[in-house]
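pasting for the record
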Amino acid sequence: MARPELSSRPLLAPGCRLNDASREPRVLLMPERALRLNGPSLEIITRCDGAHTVQQIVSELQSVYSKSDPQRVQEDILGYLAQLHDQHVLEFVPRALDCPEDAG
């Protein structure tokens, strides 16, 4: 299970999507399966939009869960993202493929 680069941008893989925000519970819909999301898992998945970097997701959730050890929050997020990637739920857009205005 390879850890994602902090500069990469996670994006839901083709065929994977979140159900409508107005529906409870929130569910990650994948080909032939579904995963009920809540708490940290929902916080992570909603940020996997191809716009947030892994580092931005980590920083935002370290603020949300400020009472937790920041290093533990980072390790948990990196592990969860790697697991979802291994299950073909997420893709990572490398920084090199970002728009030119992101460079620098």
